[in-house]
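Sorry to interrupt, but I need a hand with the structure work. Could you write out one complete protein record for me, on any chain you like? Could you add the entry underneath, on a fresh line?
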Amino acid sequence: MNAIHINWTKPFINKFNRPYEVEDFEILTTILSALKWREKNGSIKMVTDSAGIEYYNKIGLSPIWDSMENVLDDIDVNSSVFWAAGKIFALRRENAPIAMIDTDFIVWKTLDTDKMSDVNIIHFEDLYPDVYPPKEHFNINGYVFDDDFDWNLKACNTAFCIIKNNDLLKYYTDESIKFMRGTKEENDYLTYMVFAEQRLLNMCAKKINASVSAFSNLERLFTDGENCFTHTWGMKQQMRDNGALRYDFCRRCINRIVHEYPHMYEIMKNIENLKQYF
């Protein structure tokens, strides 16, 4: 199955006002995510913007993907509020079936896609009101919520998501972009983005009678990842705060990459923020 990594660099550049770069542990999970998908499940490309293309070429990482595409330079939504909008704009260009994988997410085994639902996500998310508030919370300027949307449905965590229904893919991405363009919110950095990316997916699926399934749940992912998945999202801040943890994680990743993909040794040892591990 075809898959995409997505990296819209504008939120980073606007927030930190410096050239784009990726932290050491994120580089390593990106390598494992891409190469393990290619080994076990199919092709994968990086969909990014000009700054992303320049960065990955500069550090020599482009060979981990089958290709890279520069298509995210002209996204016309607020990059502070909708910091993950690149995922939606990139996904809109694809055709189902397609897998969308965050660069901090690794699929270790071959998946049986023939038995999957129209949408397959890593896990559902409960509707905690501070994260997923009611409809009245949103400051809308032109967008109209469909009266048939079910606001009781759980949200879909899309760190790993496979969409097999092309009608749903187009409906969901179009609706999400309409929402992002149809609000004048400038200060909310959470609820608007997770609605556009994660809650709206399940609403759109039910609207057109598409099926949605989850590969796992949070409890199982935190214990053993079903022996199939690794998602480092919750560990990132811990590694930023704990140098020993960060060093151990990066060394273990490098050892595994070198063992399974020996050609990556020369590439990794020449990446500036990985040199300390060699």
Residues 243-260 form the longest helix (18 residues). The two ends are 34 Å apart (CA to CA).
